[in-house]
Amino acid sequence: CGTGRLLVKLGQAGYEVSGNDLNAKAVKYCNDRLAKHGLPRSAFVGDMADFGVKDLPGRKKIDAAFNMIN
């Protein structure tokens, strides 16, 4: 999720978003940024190399997933 720039944009467009990052400081920053924009704190510490839908808190299904490396 990094700084959450793309999560904020997608969230503002009406999408339910979640993000993960190995860096706990990045996750905190991202969650703070989401909250600042009135969005749920939905980022969590995790590893994309070992990621599954089961890792999304409270989620049973997803419609799309993106791995944005920028």
Written account of the structure:
- The protein is α+β, with helices and mostly antiparallel strands.
- The protein contains two helices and two strands.
- A two-stranded parallel ribbon has the order 1-2.
- The longest helix is centred in the middle third of the chain and has 13 residues, at 24-36.
Give short descriptive properties of this protein:
globular, two-stranded parallel sheet, single chain, 70 residues, alpha+beta
Give a quick rundown of the structure.
This protein is α+β, with helices and mostly antiparallel strands and 70 residues long. It is built from 2 helices and 2 strands; from the N terminus they run αβαβ.
Give the helices and strands, then pairings.
Blueprint: H1 5-12, E1 19-21, H2 24-36, E2 43-45
Question: What is the N-to-C order of secondary-structure elements (H for helix, E for strand)?
Answer: HEHE
- Extended strand count: 2
Major beta sheet, strand line-up = 1-2
Computed structural class: alpha+beta
